[in-house]
Amino acid sequence: MRKSNRASILLAATFAVVFTASNVRPQSGDTDDQRWKELDGAGGKAVAEGRPLDAEKIWKSALQLAERFGPDDGRLIISLNNLAELYQNQGKYPDAEPYQKRALALLEKRLGPEHALVVQSLNSLAKLYWVQGKYAEAEPLARKLLAIVEKVAGPEDPDVAQILNNLAEVYKAQRKYADAEATHKRALAIREKSLGAEDLEVAQSLNNLAELYKIQGRNREAEPFYKRSLEIGEKVFGPEHPEVATIQEKYAELLRKLNRKAEAEKLEAQAKAIRAKQAKGTP
Known about the structure:
Blueprint lengths: L14 H4 L11 H19 L3 H15 L7 H16 L3 H19 L4 H16 L3 H19 L4 H16 L3 H19 L4 H16 L3 H19 L4 H16 L3 H19 L4
């Protein structure tokens, strides 16, 4: 959600950059190396052309070849990561998981626990667990990710706030509401300090806190967070943006629970008008 010119540590490196030709030295002959490169490229081409089944077949062949290069070879890591991403992008999360786990283990061994690619891989595996509802498995990964990024980027970096936000949602999914609240509040404080009081990521934290309070029945505590989130959304997006309508609808639902019917109806009408305008294709 954040728009910034500063490079995020979560996006700071790519496999193509780290595992360059100088780093990946053939251990099973030039012929195997050349064939692996051809398969790797062909799989990427198949993905770009919308042929995921072909990509899967090709990249599995590349993986079989990469296994010959040794357990620490960069080409093996690339092939594992390719298949993990391919399955994840198709929503085949159980299929993606073993490839992502193995790639992470090899990355940690080869590059060390604080490398940007390790951070990315940790984040990807945590997301895999999240989308499968494996919250207990996602939590330790999110905590590990937080510790690394705090050390590398500093405890008040916006990336730390994003990880805190994700960790808080993992806590919430497990009904660890006290942990979720404290973690969301820390994320909010970091975002306000580093990004400014009217940044969209501040609005995200405000909205998440409001949702957390609402599911606990703490409706009066939730109300000012919805209100401020709406104010930021209207200022950043404009008063007729679909994102604003979403906040209005959630806020209106809460206001009804607080018996503030007139205010709720006003927000509902505004949201309805935005939705109607959007449906007509009006910019």
